[in-house]
Design brief:
Length: 229
């Protein structure tokens, strides 16, 4: 990814934190090491006490930034979707033609993630793995409707909507643009997860038949069929 202008910050809903972790060095360390620990331990085994021991700070200081570990997880996932949106904007900004933009967008949301040097305290590659394995725990909850009203999932929905507009630019009558985009994103996550843990359930990664190629073909086949109606 090209270097972002120095004044660009990833915007996260203020409802998710008590104190902006991006505003202090301690806050950035909380984010940095929470990513590493959730990736290593899993979200269930991760605790603020363990995080405090890791960063050499009392557990109570972490609660000054986040009310609980659920809000920390939602914060991290929001950060990832907002960062991916920036990446999408940069990758499609100078492309002419809706088909080229959609192909580039699908590549952005399905390709492997490398660490971005613009954000030294965030390991985007590890965060991507957390999104793949843990993101459903952020929204498959009893509080989903209330949290949605508070804007907890605004970044994810904004990213989906942005790509859905590209779909409609190609085929304005396509009836399921958001369904298509969210299916590609979540389907790509499942294929990556299967390829590591349940490889007999996927063909992605074999014989150069990766997720990007598969989901690009799927999307354009659906749009082509819609044109024929």
């Amino acid at each position: 990814m090209h270097n972002l202008p120095g004044n660009i910050r990833i915007q996260i809903p203020e409802e998710l934190y008590l104190k902006d972790p991006d505003s202090t060095e301690l806050g950035k360390r909380i984010i940095q090491y929470s990513i590493e620990m959730i990736h290593e331990l899993g979200f269930e085994a991760f605790t603020f006490r363990k995080l405090g021991n890791k960063i050499g700070s009392p557990e109570s200081t972490i609660y000054r930034y986040f009310e609980n570990k659920h809000k920390l997880l939602v914060y991290l996932i929001n950060w990832y979707w907002s960062w991916l949106e920036y990446k999408l904007v940069f990758s499609t900004a100078n492309l002419r033609g809706a088909q080229k933009r959609l192909k580039s967008a699908i590549k952005v949301i399905t390709e492997e993630v490398n660490q971005d040097s613009n954000f030294f305290h965030i390991n985007e590659s590890l965060l991507h793995q957390i999104v793949i394995s843990e993101s459903t725990k952020a929204f498959l909850t009893k509080e989903i409707d209330e949290e949605n009203k508070l804007g907890y999932f605004r970044a994810y929905k904004r990213l989906c909507h942005r790509i859905s507009e590209m779909v409609l630019e190609i085929e304005p009558k396509f009836p399921h643009p958001h369904t298509l985009v969210s299916t590609i994103i979540e389907g790509s996550h499942l294929q990556k997860y299967f390829s590591v843990h349940l490889p007999s359930l996927t063909d992605c990664g074999k014989n150069n038949n990766n997720e990007t190629k598969f989901f690009t073909q799927m999307a354009f086949s659906l749009l082509k069929n819609e044109k024929r109606k």
